Structure formats: structure tokens, C-alpha cells
Amino acid sequence: MRIAEARESSRLASLRNLKILDTLSSECFDRITRIVAKYFGLPIAAVSLTDVDRQWFKSSVGLDHREIPRFKAPCAEVAETCKPLVVGDFQKHPYYVDSPLGQAGIRFYAGVPLITPDGYGLGALCVLDTQPHVIEAQQMAVLTDLAAMVMDQVEMQHAVGRIEAMSGLPNRYQLFSDLRDMQIHAAGTPRLLSCLDLAQTMQFDRLSRVLGPSHVDGIVAAVAAFLRDRIGDERTAYQIGPMQFAVFAPENATPESCIPVLERLLREVGEVSDLRMTMTPSIGVMSFDPGETSPEDALRALQSAVQDARNSETGIAFYSATHDLWHQRNFRILSDFPKALAEDNQLHLVFQPRLSCITGRVESAEALLRWIHPEFGSISPAEFVPVIEASGLIRQLSAWVIDQSLLQLARWHQKGFDLRLSINISAVNLNEPDFFDLLVEKLAYHGVSPKQIEFELTETAVMAEKEKSCEVMQRISDLGVRIAIDDFGTGYSNLSYMQKLPANVVKIDRTFVADMLQGHRERVLVESMIKLSHSLGYDVVAEGVETREAADLLQIMGCSEIQGFWLSRPMSEETLCAWVLEKRAADPVHSAVA
């Protein structure tokens, strides 16, 4: 008795380990049951798995239910004995005549065992009918071959390309397959799918470099064991990336009911293998109808939720269609930008003049990039420049802007129209080994004096690249090109920083200019920034000047130049040229702010 009990315990463990019980119907198994039913010409066929007290059908034809009691089920005998079984007529069989199947009107049964490589019977591939039959040996041989095909499919899903070696969990391919089956068999039933992301890419790379891949493998194995313990045998955890694990919530779960569970999971997983010391876990969740969402879209949306979770305070985020559309749009922007650079009708420059508070004349202008996308229309630089700057395309972008700006200066010079042009570049450009040399070549090619241009860089970007960029900035400054620090006051501003940078101009950010009219403290702050900058040898440009009152106040404070909608909105090069010449003609001596 003890041997039989031990074998049954091992058999059940083998069945549980395959993670096949209580999963959705799968087309790869359904094909086999359809073939069986058609070959035998019988109305019922099934892949039946023998659990503790039930027969559960992974696939079936002609059955309306997913399970029956194990008591006096022929498939249970097949699983226990690992031998084929034929019941020609239930009414004439002494044991099965009063079985649940016999009482339900079944008269015929033929089943062959589904046997694992280590010799355990999982259940049976069987055919049934409400009429008695006699089955031939050849037919049983075909049924046996088809049962072997079922087991091949089981083993393939469990091992070949479907299981991660370190965690022992089903992988992304298995999740994709399960999502595809849900699309067929679970349409209309909303489900929640969550993804536990243990670490950002940078953390993962650093951990692998410092502690080695074996340590990472240990963490993965520990987290996999943790997830198995938390979700139990009823559900499956998947490893869908080096540090990512996916789990379906119970069918009746709602987003609201999941939040406390996910918060607890996030706290507890941080204690696994001292995970919190080296990584920052987060969880993304998406709700979907399998019948309306393809597996590809489900997995993509899940990754979108994970990225949102990375940016959330709680480390947990539910999929947002709005955020997802934003990410997709950014991807399109990045993908389409090379074509925009190559064509002549998408990118162009506009120019916003700057007025000297000392001479009252427009002596410079800022070149601003514009993009007319063939599908999206006009895209703001505030949207597309950060996307491009975070990619490898920033070099090409800056080169295009510099080329077009120098070309414009050359054209103006030929018309006798001289104006200094301020050009926005990225601090990343300063790390390019040939940036300075190419600049010298471009200036010579277009016949433009270095004194006619000014490079604008944001102070935050400059400080992020300060060690490498200061040397290049100094060479550019020595060449005669002015350097302006844009958005001054919003980043790392301090005296030490201002003393070391080889810059000529600071541009006070528009937020300070806008607040300047709100009260005394705000005005004092702007005035102090102007005086301090002047005392350190900087010219000062105020951005975002939108009212006459602000312009007058900045002139009184001693600001060098002003720029903003009060003076002019950005305009085309033809319009700018005509506008400036008109202003100069109206007052050839000076065009005072007043």
C-alpha cells in the first residue's frame, strides 16, 4: 500500500510540475482530439488528465464540461496502470456499469495512457460513444501513436524552448502561446496580467559586471521560488525577460482588489536575496479582453505599463492608453526623423529676434527648428528634440541646424544684412571628437565669421557633460564663437559653476521673467541674477518677455537683451529680414525699447 501511495504521490507531482492542469484549451491539443474523433467516427474524444479526485480535460470534442469525478473513471485506471483500456459496453461491464459515465449514458470507451519519460501516467487520450463498439488492434495502434503525439506536445511546451533553465518557469514564448489560446477560448472574459520587473537595464548590467552572472542567476532562481510559493499551484508564473516575471491575476480579480496584493508583493520581493540593496523592483499591470487584444498587443501594452511603473512613486502602474499612445508617438518621431533630415520639405528654421536694451536695436536672433511631419503636422521642438537628443541622431540634428544657420548667415551677408545668429546645440555634441574641426570647416566653407554665431546650451546638459565639454567649449570660445547658457537658473547654478564655464552669455529662463511681475521678491531675484552675471563678465538675455511692462523693467535692471512675444514671435528668414530693416529705417540711430 505504501508503495502504491508513494507512486501516486510522485505521479501527481509529475503532473503538477508540467503546469498543464486548469489551463486554457490549446489549439495544438485540439487538433489531435479532432483527428481522433474523425478517425474513429465517434462523437467524443478527449485528452484527459487524472488529478487527485477528478478527470480534467485539457482538450475535448463532444463534451460540454471540463472535468468529471475521478471515481470509477476509466481514464483514472489507464493513468494508474499505464496500460490501454477498452470498455466495449458499459452495461455489460461489472465495474463500470454503475460509474458516473455509465449512468450518464456512455456505452463505449477506449483509452491509451499518456506516459511521461520517467514512467508516470498523466491520464489518457480516449474516445467514447453512447453506443457499444468493438475496436480493432490497428485502431488501438493509431490511438497509441496519437497519444505519443500528445505527450510530445506536452514535453515540447515544458522543455524545448518554452522553459527558462535558471528559473524553471515557462518563458515568453509559452506566455505568447497561452495568450493565443485565450484569444480563441476565453474571449469576453476580462483578465489582468502583471509583470514584475526586478531591475532597470543599467542596474542589471552593473550587477552582472560587479558580481558576475552566477549571482544574477541566483537572484532569478530565488525570485522564481518566491513567486511559486506566493501564487501556488493554481496559477503559473512566467519568466519573460532576464529580470521580468509575468503572472495572471485570478479570473475574478479587479484592478482595485489587486493593488494591496501587488503592494505586498513588491515589499516582500525586495527581501529576496537582498534584492532591495541592488535593484528597484516595479510592477506593471494591464487589463484586457483576450478576444479583442492580440498576444502581440497584450505583451507590448504590458511593457508600456512596466515603463510607467518605473516612473511612478509607488513602483506600480496600470496600463494607460494615453501614455501608450505617447510612447508610440515618440517611437514614430524617432523612426521618421532620419527621413525628415534627408528630405527638403519637412525641417526648416524660423528666427526670433533679440533686442539690445543698450542700443535699442535688433542685433541678434535665435534660430529655432521646426518640423512639419507628413502625418502629424507641426511637431513642437519641445516634443521632438528631447526624443532625438536621447538617441544617436542628435549629432545629425545639430549638424543640420548648424549647416542651415551658416547658410542663412551667408545669404544675409550677401544682401548686406548682418545679424548675429544664436544656434541651439546639445552638450552631447561637445563630446564628439571631431566637432570642433568640423565647425571650423563649416565656417570656412560658408564664409561666415565665428563672431557672427552664438551656441546655446542648457546649463543642465552642460553640467551633465562638464568634464569633457569644458575643454571643447574653451576652444570654441577662443575661436570667437560666443557661448550662451540657456534656461539659466533652473539647474545647477552656483558661483563656482559660473566662474569655470567659458561662456559669454546667460539667458534667464522665462519662468523667472514671468514671475517677475508677481511681487517684490520675484523682481529682486531677477535683478540679483542680472547684477551677479554682469559682475562675472556675462551679458544677460531675458527670455519670455511678453509685456511692455516686463521689457521696461528689465531695461531698468540693466539687462543686456530681451527676447519674447512682446518683441516678435518667431518668423521666416524673409520676414525677419524685412522686419529688422523696417525697424532700422524707422529709427536709424536707435529703436529704443520705450
Automatic annotation (TrEMBL):
Looking up InterPro entries in the UniProt record yields: Cyclic-di-GMP_PDE-like, EAL_dom, EAL_sf, GAF, GAF-like_dom_sf, GGDEF_dom, Nucleotide_cyclase, Rev_trsase/Diguanyl_cyclase
Q: Which residues form a coiled coil?
A: none
Q: What protein am I looking at?
A: GGDEF domain-containing protein
**What PANTHER family has UniProt attached to this entry?**
CYCLIC DI-GMP PHOSPHODIESTERASE PA2567 (PTHR33121:SF19), CYCLIC DI-GMP PHOSPHODIESTERASE PDEF (PTHR33121)
User: Which Gene Ontology molecular function entries are recorded, alphabetically?
Assistant: cyclic-guanylate-specific phosphodiesterase activity
Q: Which domain of life is it from?
A: Bacteria
Q: Which SMART domains match?
A: EAL, GAF, GGDEF
What species does this protein belong to? Allorhizobium terrae
Occurrences of domain GGDEF (ranges) = 189-324
Q: Show where the EAL domain sits.
A: 330-584
